[in-house]
From TrEMBL:
<dbReference type="InterPro" id="IPR000326">
    <property type="entry name" value="PAP2/HPO"/>
</dbReference>
<feature type="domain" description="Phosphatidic acid phosphatase type 2/haloperoxidase">
    <location>
        <begin position="93"/>
        <end position="210"/>
    </location>
</feature>
<feature type="transmembrane region" description="Helical">
    <location>
        <begin position="167"/>
        <end position="189"/>
    </location>
</feature>
<protein>
    <submittedName>
        <fullName>Phosphatase PAP2 family protein</fullName>
    </submittedName>
</protein>
<feature type="transmembrane region" description="Helical">
    <location>
        <begin position="195"/>
        <end position="214"/>
    </location>
</feature>
<feature type="transmembrane region" description="Helical">
    <location>
        <begin position="226"/>
        <end position="247"/>
    </location>
</feature>
<feature type="transmembrane region" description="Helical">
    <location>
        <begin position="63"/>
        <end position="87"/>
    </location>
</feature>
<keyword id="KW-0812">Transmembrane</keyword>
<keyword id="KW-0472">Membrane</keyword>
<dbReference type="InterPro" id="IPR036938">
    <property type="entry name" value="PAP2/HPO_sf"/>
</dbReference>
<feature type="transmembrane region" description="Helical">
    <location>
        <begin position="141"/>
        <end position="160"/>
    </location>
</feature>
<dbReference type="Pfam" id="PF01569">
    <property type="entry name" value="PAP2"/>
</dbReference>
<keyword id="KW-1133">Transmembrane helix</keyword>
<feature type="transmembrane region" description="Helical">
    <location>
        <begin position="253"/>
        <end position="273"/>
    </location>
</feature>
<feature type="transmembrane region" description="Helical">
    <location>
        <begin position="16"/>
        <end position="33"/>
    </location>
</feature>
<feature type="transmembrane region" description="Helical">
    <location>
        <begin position="94"/>
        <end position="112"/>
    </location>
</feature>
């Protein structure tokens, strides 16, 4: 599996950045044309679409609230922790990509400072699921960045060889990613463009992580069993955090993540002892 990931990553070209950068440029031009490069107009041009998506997704609160948890980095990375054992090269890229996405997310939120829907609209006019998101960190959606950063690394790591399979894999990954990302509108935490822009930024972050790990061996130690205790301790910390969240939220997705964490902890502990 790791050989396949290495081979797939070696085929990637920098030209893959052209599309997402072009999309961001197109969105910027659209906002400029609508005179929506300032906060109030940015929110107003999305108001009707936000209410429409929020209302329709809000009809399925349990599903939406479970799915939106996958935008939490600790949760989605915990699910993928098994690949530390079987595809460490993917994890090298994922670690680099996560750092890039963190810089983008924190930096852009602090620069743009767009107020969240709960700040701009009457809270009785739209659906809020879970804890109400407030403040001025709406653009871009951090959850969307996390989802597409992770999915981009996965997309290219396990890209099939045959064109028909490749098309299906790309469509499946994008549709799944957007479905999870748009739950942020469903829970009332973000506007649609926050999610779209966040998804594009996540894609760029994922690509950046792949190219960084391909050029520099920053995380080569991931494949060394003597460092497994670092991951074991990290996963145990995630496990305890998940237990706390299960008690607090009692969501099905959290039980699934708990199961996903237990197996790699056991496998890494066994491999470390037997090394």
């Amino acid at each position: 599996m790791n050989v396949k990931v290495i081979n797939n990553y070696s085929k990637l070209k920098p030209s893959l950045f052209y599309l997402p950068i072009s999309l961001l440029a197109a969105i910027t031009l659209f906002l400029h044309h609508k005179d929506a490069l300032h906060t109030d107009k940015y929110v107003q041009i999305q108001k009707d679409v936000f209410f429409f998506i929020n209302y329709n997704l809000g009809q399925y609160p349990d599903i939406i609230y479970n799915l939106t948890q996958l935008g939490d980095a600790s949760i989605i990375l915990s699910i993928l922790s098994i690949f530390i054992l079987y595809a460490p090269k993917m994890w090298e890229s994922l670690m680099s990509a996560s750092l890039v996405s963190l810089v983008f997310s924190v930096g852009l939120k602090n620069i743009l400072r767009v107020p969240r829907p709960a700040v701009m609209f009457d809270n009785n006019c739209f659906v809020i699921i879970g804890k109400k998101a407030v403040g001025f960190a709406s653009l871009p959606s951090g959850h969307s960045i996390t989802v597409f950063t992770t999915f981009t690394v996965l997309l290219f790591a396990f890209m099939p060889e045959k064109p028909p399979h490749k098309i299906l894999w790309v469509l499946f990954t994008i549709i799944t990613g957007l479905t999870i990302a748009f739950t942020r509108v469903g829970v009332g935490a973000h506007y649609p463009l926050d999610v779209i822009i966040g998804s594009i930024v996540g894609y760029i972050s994922g690509l950046a992580g792949i190219f960084i790990s391909r050029k520099y061996s920053i995380w080569a130690w991931v494949n060394n069993k003597k460092y497994y205790p670092i991951f074991i301790l990290s996963l145990l910390a995630c496990f305890m955090s998940l237990i706390s969240q299960v008690i607090d939220k009692n969501l099905i997705i959290l039980y699934f993540v708990l199961i996903c964490v237990i197996f790699p902890i056991y496998k890494m502990a066994y491999a470390f002892i037997k090394r």
